[in-house]
Every structure is written in structure tokens, then in C-alpha cells.
Design goal:
With about 120 residues, this protein is mostly helical. The chain has a domain of about 70 residues: Winged helix-like DNA-binding domain superfamily/Winged helix DNA-binding domain (Arc Repressor Mutant, subunit A, Orthogonal Bundle). The chain is built from five helices and two strands. A two-stranded antiparallel ribbon has the order 1-2. The chain starts with 12 loop residues before the first helix and ends with a helix. This is GntR family transcriptional regulator. Keywords: DNA-binding, Transcription, Transcription regulation. One of its GO terms (molecular function) is DNA binding.
């Protein structure tokens, strides 16, 4: 699993982890039925607290993307729908725009200018 976090990102770490996992599921890196590595392993690879990873995993479970099974770990139950992926990417784009001093309305104008 190759997940990365942006330490300059203003979003909480658990949201970044959830977004990275959501993208990996939506893009097919993880298929329904696949097991994820343990939260401690993910946390160790990212250099963050395991509770942060667990918070992200619980959020994805609540979205219906993951299933927790005692003794079997966490597995993928479904694919992220297109809208969920677009919402995630739109949030990331808006966060990036804000870092450069642009607001939501500025971003709308930029999008409207695209062919």
C-alpha cells in the first residue's frame, strides 16, 4: 500500500488517510473482498498514531466502503462511487486553491473558463 500524506495540508490527518484510501478503492487498487493491512502497519508506514488511522477506517466503514470483522481485520466491501471520489477531489482542489489565496467563487470562475 502506497499512501502519502501532505504535512502542509490543513485537513486533519484522519481525513487525509480516509481520502487516500477512498481514492485507492475507487481507482481499483483494492477490490471488494480485499483485506487492508492492519491499522498499526498503516500508521507505522505513514509515521502517525494508529488511532488516527482507526478514525479514518471507521469513517470509511460508516460510508459502507469497509467492513470490520473480529479476527479477520478490515476488508473492502464496495467501490467508492464516482460522486464520492469527485467530492473528495473537489475538496482537495478547494483546499489547494485556498493555499494560493483563491476562494470558492474564484475556483468556480476558473472551472467555467475551461473548455
Amino acid at each position: 500500500m502506497l499512501l502519502t500524506l501532505d504535512l502542509n495540508d490543513v485537513r486533519p490527518l484522519h481525513e487525509q488517510v480516509a481520502g487516500a484510501l477512498r481514492r485507492a478503492i475507487g481507482e481499483g487498487s483494492y477490490q471488494p473482498g480485499d483485506r487492508l493491512p492492519p491499522a498499526r502497519e498503516i500508521a507505522g508506514a505513514l509515521g502517525i498514531n494508529p488511532n488516527t488511522v482507526l478514525r479514518a477506517l471507521r469513517g470509511l466503514r460508516d460510508e459502507g466502503l469497509l467492513e470490520f470483522r473480529r479476527g479477520r481485520g478490515v476488508s473492502v466491501t464496495g467501490r467508492a462511487d464516482g460522486r464520492a471520489l469527485l467530492v473528495q477531489r473537489a475538496r482537495e482542489l478547494l483546499d489547494e486553491a485556498r493555499r494560493y489565496g483563491y476562494g470558492r467563487d474564484d475556483l468556480f470562475r476558473i472551472l467555467e473558463e475551461l473548455p
